Amino acid sequence: MIHVSIIGATGYTGVELVRLLGLREDVVLDHLTSRTYAGQKIQHLFPHLLGNVDHTCEELDLEQVTTDSDVIFVALPHGHALPIAKKAKEKGKKVIDLGADFRLKDAAVYEEWYKVPHTEPKLLEEAVYGLPEWDRDAIKDATVIANPGCFVTSILLGLMPLMKKKDWIVPNSIICDSKSGTSGAGRAGNVANLFTEVESSFKAYGVAHHRHTPEIEQLLTQMAGTDTMIQFTPHLVPMSRGILSTIYATVTGGHTADEIHALFEEAYADEPFVQVLPAGMWPMTKSVKGTNNCQLGVTYDERTGRVIIVSVIDNLMKGAAGQAVQNMNLMFGLAETTGLQMIGLFP
Ligand SMILES: NC(=O)C1=CN([C@@H]2O[C@H](COP(=O)(O)OP(=O)(O)OC[C@H]3O[C@@H](n4cnc5c(N)ncnc54)[C@H](OP(=O)(O)O)[C@@H]3O)[C@@H](O)[C@H]2O)C=CC1
Ligand SMILES: CC(=O)N[C@@H](CCC(=O)OP(=O)(O)O)C(=O)O
């Protein structure tokens, strides 16, 4: 049995973790924490859990949580995972942080983009970036996992086969244009995410300064082995879940559309959660809703010399809770797909 606590269980990613873990026979949910809803039953706050998860939300008692649980999922705003990971490490327990506190390897870069001091530089050094398709062996041995950002996951999976080839694309030619549903912004009240503001509308935000930019560049640089800079623009679209990223890059000479498509098919042939669509097919967010899947469409435009990749994920699943559970499975020596194999909803 794996003993689990979820810190921030009443947020969108926290409650998605409850959905994924609540009925697993190999998992015991010890503590579900929330400041606002402490003392209330989670199934009354979220009726989709009725009859399945009978826990009452609690204030965080860090001593208790790190005594009782083998692994602690932290689903809090950035900055808040640092003391939790410190205590868990002292007690020999594992942490999976869904936020950004352990993603950027350089504490100064984290402080510049997130505007909070990084108080755990040693843990940051030890933390493993939790993208299984990139380095699942490192995840198996990790004690602190930095679960990747949602936009970041869609973009990294879209570019990884090409980056690993080192010289198939011009590194600084990459443009990532991403669209997210509003659950990406979390559950906390915010005027910009009101139905009246979002409905029938579509807008760009964070243009030229979104905080996922350094995270994407850090991983692409590792994959390619050369400094890589990208242009990243996120957009907000009126849907609850889902991310669609359209990625463009200039291809170096001599590669054909068939060759590039074959590269993607081969790279992901054994990956349980990445599906490369047949040439000429393009993915849609609806196909991955509620699943841990990433679907990719890819082509090469010989006229412009650019590769075009379209990548879709569910931001709360492969972009957050699903990927976090995939990481937990790896850390505990389970089949990576445990509790995560599902077909999407349609329509
Ligand atoms: N939404 C998404 O698609 C994704 C989110 N993430 C990351 O996951 C983390 C959680 O995101 P999400 O679930 O969307 O966020 P939500 O805003 O939906 O939930 C946040 C949770 O944290 C608690 N919380 C909020 N503020 C504080 C605080 N100051 N101190 C302690 N607890 C607090 C809230 O409950 P209460 O206030 O009652 O304590 C709530 O349970 C964030 O770091 C986010 O960046 C990562 C990938 C995708
Ligand atoms: C639509 C929306 O607002 N999305 C969020 C990104 C999702 C998120 O929570 O950020 P992390 O993945 O880094 O944790 C944003 O742009 O800030």
Automatic annotation (TrEMBL):
Q: Name one GO biological process term.
A: L-arginine biosynthetic process
Q: What class of enzyme is it?
A: oxidoreductase
Tell me the active site. C150
- EC number of the protein: 1.2.1.38
An example Gene Ontology cellular component term from the record? cytoplasm
According to the entry, every stretch annotated as the Semialdehyde dehydrogenase NAD-binding domain falls at 3-142
**In what pathway does it function?**
Amino-acid biosynthesis; L-arginine biosynthesis; N(2)-acetyl-L-ornithine from L-glutamate: step 3/4
Which compartments is it annotated to reside in? Cytoplasm
Which GO MF terms does the UniProt record name? N-acetyl-gamma-glutamyl-phosphate reductase activity; NAD binding; NADP+ binding
- Which function does this protein serve? Catalyzes the NADPH-dependent reduction of N-acetyl-5-glutamyl phosphate to yield N-acetyl-L-glutamate 5-semialdehyde.
Supply the NCBIfam families for this chain: argC
Protein name per Swiss-Prot or TrEMBL = N-acetyl-gamma-glutamyl-phosphate reductase
